[in-house]
Specification:
It is a single chain. This protein starts with a helix and ends in a 5-residue tail after the last strand. With 124 residues, it is of the alpha+beta class. It is 28% helix and 36% strand.
Amino acid sequence: MDRAETGRRGERAAALYYIRRGCTLLEHNYCIRGGEIDLILRDPAGVIIICEVKTRTDPDAVCRPAASVTLAKRRRIVRTAAWYLQQTGQQEAFTRFDVAEVTPLDSGRWMVHIIKSAFDASAR
């Protein structure tokens, strides 16, 4: 399995994790010229969840997958989210920025760890 396929499977695993907890998937790989968001969801309370998914195949890696979400990446995500919310008329909605750390297990299943509110919109 190549890196891109591993990433796609990790995104699907993270989306399924949220869906199983009552969230609705609004967008998958939402792209505009200045950025991309892996998952956009709405939780049962109406909160819009902007999720960056980081999939790593080595569970023993020195740094956590979330560490690769740099300030520049967070800024792009926040700008893209602002565009999405404006275009969909949801700019007043409460928004949360999560990072999902996803690792494949030997059993063919996926370990998903969600870091809720990993960063906020001040990353502009």
